[in-house]
Amino acid sequence: MYKFMKRTVDIILSLLLIILTFPFQLIIAAVLLIIVKDNPLFFHPRGLTLDTYRFTMIKFRTMPSFQIERKNKNRMNEVFLMPKMETHLNAFACWLRKSGLDELPQIYNILLGEMSFIGPRPLMIKDLEILKAQSSFYYNLREKIISKPGITGIWQIIGDRSRGAENLVGLDLFYEEKKSSLLDLIILFSTIPMILFAKNSDERIPDNDFISKIFITALEYFRFAPSKELLPGKHE
């Protein structure tokens, strides 16, 4: 019943948002076309793992293609999820990213059934390759997740990038274990202030203590790495 209700809400809410925000999307696209001088939409392969929930995410492009290629080249095999990305964005693009509105086109991914509003964060293929190579234990744990990737989720609003894969996978597993309509509502309403006050950022560790208090159980539960007893056999 929960799964059916969640998909129903995803369809209704995504359709409603597409209708309500379409003129706003056109304005954003027009401004980005001028300042970025590139296709305002960015299509990027993502997934929960390299084999599960692979899809092409749609976002607003906040930097030109050559800057993205340069950033990816410079990353090499650095530890993923660490806040070391240095980007030079203009004020409008920076505001889009901090408010999370650069992810608005993902409502089309939701309508197509590739994502949900609430769920674990889908990662770039490069990050998944790094995760599998450097932290195979956490990668294998993530394969246990059956929830669809989400635009927002527990890690997206209170995740600590300085704690890397442990924090990401721990909070993802917490959501997988505790997911409910009530938890989804809490996450959804906790996301709203981040949009309104531009508190979101994929470049920095978020500072949202008032939100973190809501999920104190999650933070305490995954203060340390999940037990290796969760996986059978030998672990690296």
Description:
With 236 residues, the chain is mostly helical. Helices cover 53% and strands 9% of the residues. It contains 11 helices and 5 strands. Residues 201-236 have low confidence and may be disordered.
Helix and strand layout, with pairings?
Layout: H1 2-36, E1 41-47, E2 55-60, H2 65-75, H3 91-99, H4 106-111, E3 116-118, E4 123-124, H5 125-134, H6 136-142, E5 150-152, H7 154-158, H8 164-178, H9 181-196, H10 209-212, H11 216-221
Parallel strand pairs: 3-5
Antiparallel strand pairs: 1-2, 1-4
Helix pairs in contact: 5-6, 6-8
Keywords:
single chain, 11 helices, 53% helix
Q: Ranges with pLDDT <50 over ≥5 residues?
A: 201-236
- Individual helix count: 11
Q: Rg to the nearest angstrom? A: 17 Å
Number of strands: 5
Mean pLDDT value: 78
Terminus-to-terminus distance: 38 Å
The helical percent reads 40-55%
The gross shape turns out to be: globular
Give the ordered list of helices and strands: HEEHHHEEHHEHHHHH
Structural class, judged by helices and strands?
mainly alpha
User: Within the largest sheet, what's the order of strands?
Assistant: 2-1-4
How big a fraction of the residues is strand? 5-15%
The description of the largest β-sheet is: 3 strands, antiparallel
